[in-house]
Amino acid sequence: MSAATHLVGYDDAMAAFDPVFGIEVHVELNTKTKMFCGCENTFGNEPNTQVCPVCLGLPGSMPVTNEKAVESAIRLGLALGCSIRESSRFARKNYFYPDLAKDYQISQYDEPTCYEGELEVVLDDGTVVMIGIERAHMEEDAGKNTHVGGTGGIQGASHSLVDYNRGGVPLVEIVTKPIEGMGERTAEVARAYVATIRDIVRALGISDGRMEQGRLRADVNLSLRAKAAPGEDQSAVPFGKRSETKNVNSLRAVERSIHYEAGRQAALLLAGEPVVQETRHWHEDTSSTTPGRSKEEAEDYRYFPEPDLLPVEPSREWVEQLRASIPEHPAKMRARLREEWGFSDLEMRDAVAADALTLIADTVAAGAAPQAARKWWMGELARTANEQDVELPELAVTPADIAQLQGLVDEGKINDKLARQVLEGVLAGEGSPADVVASRGLEVVSDDSALEAAVDEALAAQPDVLDKIREGKVQAAGAIVGAVMKATRGQADAGRVRAIILARAGVEG
Ligand code: ZN
Ligand code: MN
Q: What's the burial of 233, exposed, middle or buried (CB within 10 Å: 0-12/13-18/19+)?
């Protein structure tokens, strides 16, 4: 066995060698139909119910390119700073695997639609790294194999099932150039890059980017090369042999897979053993990789032009129209909003993590103060979403509702306690906040004669309170405020009640 039985720690590996990495990200597009046929593109249906002769590769069936998928791919390419090729052909990438019904995948080879881009990636401490993009090409997804039952066979299973629903789903594959010179920040940069891609596809609205459901998948290439001698140019040192860790399906796993691979490769190199160029499988449970197949080269796939499809030839006018629809870079948008809203770093991070930025922005646009909008979405509504086990945007309340609710609080029509009851009503489908206030009769009682009567009644039950206030124990008024709130079922204006009590005691408020 290998002499390199002990892994080298990540920091030691990065100190001893110069890491070079590259990432391939596959993004599943959220088009209504598949890439080359009319089958529905939805996730999680009964296996093999969204298939047709085209995506099953039956003889005589003819593919037709999905225009919406081309539009999404071009918009993504533009957001990555890519050039858009005037004419690009699809190619057949030939290989056999049971999830690939045609025995070839329709992809793009020497003529990717989007090429030569550059993406700004902002790290947690604000450092900006430029990542070179080699290409972003269109292709179709394969089906899905599931290995089940018993022991032995593939991955310990007795047999395998294949579901072709995913076969033919539109993908964009984004390939970076080799990224050098990141040293011990390599894993952090890789993670931030994938996070940025995820943010961008969401901002473009072309994919939900959910890694846990495989809609955004990363393959992580890493190699280590010798450090240049002092005074020598590092870029003159040839790259080491790389491993490609496949289907890394969370941001954390992107980071961890690089930690593991750096340690594994460094241990081999320090023991004088070669690193084998191969694909490797990521294991989430053990945070480690195991060998897959030895890496094939492009010629193994016998790429050739797809004869059944027309070339993709987007007009320059169309490309410029699409360019005008590209949203602001997510990191820049976050920095701008944080500044405009006056949020702390922590408040901003929490809002991003809860997927609440758009909701807060829309609530602010509907007239609420940013902090008030944040408190509703990150407080009461986050709790409700958690209880109902849904995402924030799925709640039965709109940003306009929340802005109206806060407006009622600001006008003094309802207090915080009533506002929560109003929100309950809105979530229960009783209409807008104003509707619920009217139908449930939840308006704050600020009519002085009604409040004065309630205060006098409470004072009659606790006659010593006025003397205590006159002696300087102003906090004694709290008992009367509480009694009045109880008597009015929380609908009294607490500030007004307090002022009336102090007036009764002859004390300035
Ligand atoms: Zn189909
Ligand atoms: Mn691919």
A: exposed
